[in-house]
Amino acid sequence: MPEATMTANTGAVRTGTQELSLNKAINAALADALEENPRALVLGEDVGRLGGVFRITDGLQERFGAERVFDTPLAESGILGMSVGLAMAGYHPIPEVQFDGFTYPAVNQIVTQIARMNFRTRGALPMPITLRMPSFGGIQSPELHSESLEWLFAHVAGLKVVSPSNPHQAYHLLRHAATMPDPVVFMEPKSRYWQKGSVDFDTPGDLTGSVVAREGRHLTLVAWGAMVSRCLQVADMAAEDGVEVEVLDLRWLKPIDAEGLARSVARTRRAVVVHEAPKSAGLGAEVAQLITEHCFGTLKAPVERVTGFDVPFPSGSLENEYLPNADRILFGIQRVLEYRRG
Amino acid sequence: MAEISFPLPDLGEGLIEATVLEWLVAEGDQVERNQPMVEVETTKSSLELPSPQAGTVVRTHGEPGDTINVGDPLIVFEVPDDTAGIVGTVPKDEAPKRRVRLSANLDDD
Amino acid sequence: MSVTATPAATGALELDPQRLQADELKRLLAQMITVRHLDTSAIAWQRQGIIPGYAPMQGQEAAQVGSIAALDMTRDFVFPTYREMGAAYAAGVDMAEYMATHKATWNGGLHDPVKYRFTPIQTVIAGSALHAVGWAHGQRLDALREGREQTDLPASLIYLGDGASSQGDIHEAMNFAGVFKTPTVFFVQNNGWAISVPTEHQVAGGSVAARGAGYGLPSVAVDGNDVEAVVRAARAAVAHARSGAGAVVVEAFTYRRGPHSTSDDPGRYRSLEDERRDAGPDPIERLAERLIAADELTESEVRELWADAAAFEERTREAVAAQGPRPGAEMFEYVYQETTPVLQQQAAQWREESDHA
Fold first, then answer.
1. Which of A36, A176, A268, C210 is the most buried (most CB within 10 A)?
2. Is the predicted pLDDT of residue A1 greater than 80, yes or no?
């Protein structure tokens, strides 16, 4: 007899509404993805008995067994390369890279293998791999634990990239990504892991494009991941000064929802894009260009970028100097507001 | 809730063990960070170890007179899930400070 | 003539005890002659402008054909490098479709990897090793899911060279394979050269197989120019993997008789004298002489095999030469399973603005 058997699925997933922190919402999404798809697997460093360093996979191994939720040796290229083979064997791996910066040793497998396998095999070997990655800064973590890698992965043909900003989205976007037949880089805003919010399990809403997180008529703040909540705070401040700021949560960083961007900025006629990654050749440039293409005629000012600086992400004590804060975003807004042609 | 185990650290250069002299906290105690926790003796000195963190004491290892190897568990705390195993700090959810005020003539909008 | 094998010091794998029958050896000889002729012809095709480039495998016929002979191509899976034309042929891959990658028709080749159980060629050195481990782990999970015993598993075979053994992914793959006990055969063709760098400057310790011990993987080193030794080593390796005992390393010592690729100039790093001295016996001549000496084969039969090979090359060349470029729309079609609005828009613009005669 085999030494172990795969845990049978009941297929029952969550319903109703629940107040959850973002990390618990991701845990719930993983549990439901494993429940729904018997070929879904969770693998990575310390994801088993420990439940991951952020406890995102807490309880999953106990519930689904050590064959479906398993620890790997400590090697990111190994985790991603193994995921390729598992996908070839008909599984849907959901690997975790423990921290954004540890993805660098696996970039070869992600870029040269995962992203182009469907292409080079003419669709014969698709890569349904959902790569979870705690991302961005904000928790004073050690070096290379605060990277924003959308600049890299959004440029790679064959990948899709998404970042949720609240528990409801985190649950549904991950459930969605875990059913997609293409590789998805799922960037989790680690500084928001403890943020609580209502998750309506029955009503995912649209999962493909951007969402307006707050409506406003004077200016659009474009953001994703952890910067969305900061932009919402800034919108409150701007309202005190009589400026009605719209916050557009981009969510999908590849492909970018150009239509949603154009719809918002066509109304507000001003835009500031905010991200944590360094400015030069960051995704903000792409967003600004898309806005220019679609809204040039009606724009009242050039699109501003409020971003991290072109420096390595600094140590925790300097983190708040590096990350876009309320004042820097307000300065950006002010520059756009006072811009005059000629 | 989650448990965090604290191993006996190397209390001098290359010490391999220490002897428990007296526990200053007991199982079930709520302790604060830096609160004196235990007195131990090494081959170099006796000293008092401050608690590395806040939490509830779940277990202590070693009775007075027992020797504990460096790296072996000394004390186990119970802490809220949110603070277990985090590489970094849980950010406080507080309203950000602002210094910049917006001024704009939005009449033409 | 003896079959040579040098088991590594620890965890040595014994050769499969079964000697090969004459008809098996004749079938292998036919395959070796076919791929030798196709290989030397492919270099000519490049000189004739039929294909832009090629990575020759001359000298490695026994290693490639012999390793495939140990597999069950209805259920095992092969992960080649870019120098596995002989393995592809022996595995039954359509050779015009395989050559499509060298024709620059489609990167990786046009063959269906699922149908042939043979992945696209790999251009990243060591890039596929972890895939072979992951796929093999999937076979273990399948057996668990279906409640089957783990004693008759499909196996993956990953080809790598002495150069690839320097890559970190090989370490990770062997370690993962050891930890997860995956049914994987690491088949090393130590052909003496990684472009211009010789093995002694590449492989510290001199043997990739010896490294298996460090991962708890049994290993065996064989004379890669002796097809029977290769088959028996590979059969032992596959049997080990299938049995659920885990992965295994086979190192076949052979020689890259040709250049690294059609754009390489071996004269810059080795002399003809070096080649004559180091290449060892030609695997094809050696096998033919052995069979003739045993009265299992005649000179005229050998000539027939070469004539068959020439006819096969002729058919393959015609099919390769006839390959036109793929429709440009395929660039957009295969990026994703589910395309994106951005890509659709770019495809539309391409249709509109480019000249599609």
1. A268
2. no
B90 and A CB contact within 8 Å: yes
Indicate the helix (H) or strand (E) that contains A17.
strand A17-21
**Exposure pattern of A311-325 as b/e (b: 16+ CB <10 Å)?**
eebbebeebeebbbb
- Angular region, A269: left φ>0, alpha ψ -120 to 50, beta rest: left
Which domains are seen in chain C, by residue range? 5-326 (3.40.50.970), 327-357 (no CATH)
Q: Do β-strands B36-41 and B46-50 pair in parallel, antiparallel, or remain unpaired?
A: antiparallel
Option in C110, C134, C172 nearest A85 (CB)? C134
User: B100, A330: Cβ pair inside 8 Å?
Assistant: yes
Residues of chain A with CATH 3.40.50.970: 20-200
Q: Which residue has the higher pLDDT, C303 or B85?
A: C303
A255:C135 CB<8 A: no
Specify the range with the lowest mean pLDDT, choosing from A152-166, A230-244, B55-69.
B55-69
* C241 DSSP 8-state letter: I
Report yes or no on B33 lying in a domain.
yes
Average of per-residue pLDDT across A152-172:
98
Tokens 């921290």 correspond to A99
What residue spans in chain A does CATH classification 3.40.50.920 cover? 211-337
Q: Measured between CB atoms, does B96 come within 8 Å of chain A?
A: yes
Give residues with Cβ within 8 angstroms of C216, minimum separation 6: C11, C178, C246
**What is the pLDDT confidence band of residue B82, given thresholds at 50, 70 and 90?**
low
Q: What is the Cα–Cα distance from A164 to C51, expressed in whole angstroms?
A: 48
The span from the CA of A79 to the CA of A85, in Å, is 10
Query: Which amino acid, one-letter code, is at A246?
Result: E
As a whole number, mean pLDDT of residues C211-221 equals 95
Q: What is the pTM of this model?
A: 0.89
Q: Are C200 and C39 in contact (CB under 8 A)?
A: no
Q: In what order do the strands lie in the sheet with B67-69?
A: B46-50, B36-41, B17-23, B67-69
Query: Counting beta carbons within 10 angstroms of the beta carbon of residue C298, is it exposed (0 to 12), middle (13 to 18) or buried (19 or more)?
Result: exposed
Q: Residue B104 is nearest to which of A191, A326, A337, comparing CB atoms? A: A337
Q: Is the pLDDT reported for residue B15 higher than 80?
A: no
Question: Domain A20-200: which topology?
Answer: Rossmann fold (3.40.50)
Q: How far apart are CA A230 and CA A326, in angstroms?
A: 7
> CA of A144 to nearest chain C CA: how many angstroms apart?
21
* Residue B79 located in a structural domain: yes
Q: Which two tokens stand for residue A330?
A: 């307000």
B48 within a domain of the structure (yes/no): yes
Catalytically annotated residues of A: 145
- pLDDT one-digit tens code per residue, C266-323: 999 999 999 999 998 999 999 999 999 999 999 999 999 999 999 999 999 999 999 9
Interatomic CA distance for residues C34 and C57, integer angstroms = 12
pLDDT above 90 coverage of chain C, percent: 94
3-state DSSP: chain C helix, strand, coil percent, rounded to 5?
A: 50, 10, 40
Q: For residue range A188-237, list pLDDT tens digits in order.
A: 999 999 999 999 999 999 999 999 999 999 999 999 999 999 999 999 99
Provide the pairing of β-strand A271-278 with A304-308.
parallel
Q: Which fold has domain A211-337?
A: Rossmann fold (3.40.50)
Amino acid at A40: A
B109 touching chain A per CB within 8 A: yes
Please give the Cα distance from C228 to C20 (Å, whole number): 7
What are the chain A neighbours of B90 within 8 Å (beta carbons)? 139, 194
Structural domain containing residue B9? 2-83
The CA distance from A312 to A263, in Å, is 35
Q: How many independent structural domains does chain B possess?
A: 1
pLDDT for B84 equals 60
Task: Judge contact between C109 and A124, C-beta under 8 A.
Answer: no
CATH of the domain at B12: 2.40.50.100
